[in-house]
Amino acid sequence: MSDQPAVLISETEVADRVAAVAAQIAPRIDDETVMVCLLTGGIWFAADLTRALARLGRHVHFDALWLSSYRDERHSYGRCEVRADLQRPVLGRKALIVDDVFDTGLSLSEAARLVKDAGAAEVLTAVFASKPWPTERAIKVDFVAWEAPARFLVGYGMDVAGTMRGLPYIGAMD
């Protein structure tokens, strides 16, 4: 394995894909929608998506859920641990759950359940990257910016043991 990731999507292409998915999302939400960012990997996509939606005239409320299913490992341990819950009420409002990557699908599925249980009127999901192997328990993602290959991805929020999240592009470490 190389120490440097092979670049799969450049910084410019990341920005183009965020703008394109924002254009798909904007007609489905309103200004009362709560964007729920899944921490910590979803921060990069959520920040860029929030700005892209604002350019389209959609000004979402922002919140976050901190779920963990990896513990700085390369493979999920099969269940989600809630480390920090919602702070903003979603009762009767649309919620848009945002994450960096749809890998096993467990975190996004658990987040959707938690947000629905908190009373959201509608729960939509958006990920930057979707890998080809979600588990049977996984939900179907509403908005995907990039159909990713079956590789170990880093950058733009995705990490290897907590590092390389800040890369402005997406690379592979395999």
Fold blueprint:
Elements: E1 6-9, H1 11-25, E2 34-39, H2 43-55, E3 61-68, E4 81-84, E5 94-102, H3 106-117, E6 122-130, E7 143-147, E8 153-154, E9 170-172
Parallel strand pairs: 2-3, 2-5, 5-6, 6-7
Antiparallel strand pairs: 1-9, 3-4, 8-9
Helix pairs in contact: 1-2
Overview of this structure, please?
This protein is α/β, with parallel strands linked by helices. The chain has a single domain (11-149), classed as Rossmann fold. It is built from three helices and nine strands. The strands form two sheets. It has a six-stranded mixed beta sheet, with helices on both faces. Helix 3 (106-117) links the parallel strand 5 (94-102) and strand 6. Helix 1 packs across helix 2 (43-55). The N and C termini lie close together (6 Å). The model has no long low-confidence stretch (mean pLDDT 89).
Under the CATH scheme, which class? Answer: Alpha Beta
Please state how the strands of the largest beta sheet are arranged side by side: 4-3-2-5-6-7
Question: Low-confidence spans: pLDDT under 50, at least 5 residues?
Answer: none
Integer count of domains: 1
Could you name the CATH topology? Rossmann fold
Q: How far from one another are the termini?
A: 6 Å
Please provide the ordered H/E string of secondary-structure elements.
EHEHEEEHEEEE
Tell me the overall shape: globular
Calculate the mean pLDDT score and round it. 89
**Estimated radius of gyration:** 15 Å
Count of runs of 4 or more consecutive helical residues = 3
Largest sheet: 6 strands, mixed
β-strand amount: 25-35%
| CATH architecture level-2 label | 3-Layer(aba) Sandwich
Helix content: 10-25%
Structural class: alpha/beta
By DSSP, the count of extended strands is 9
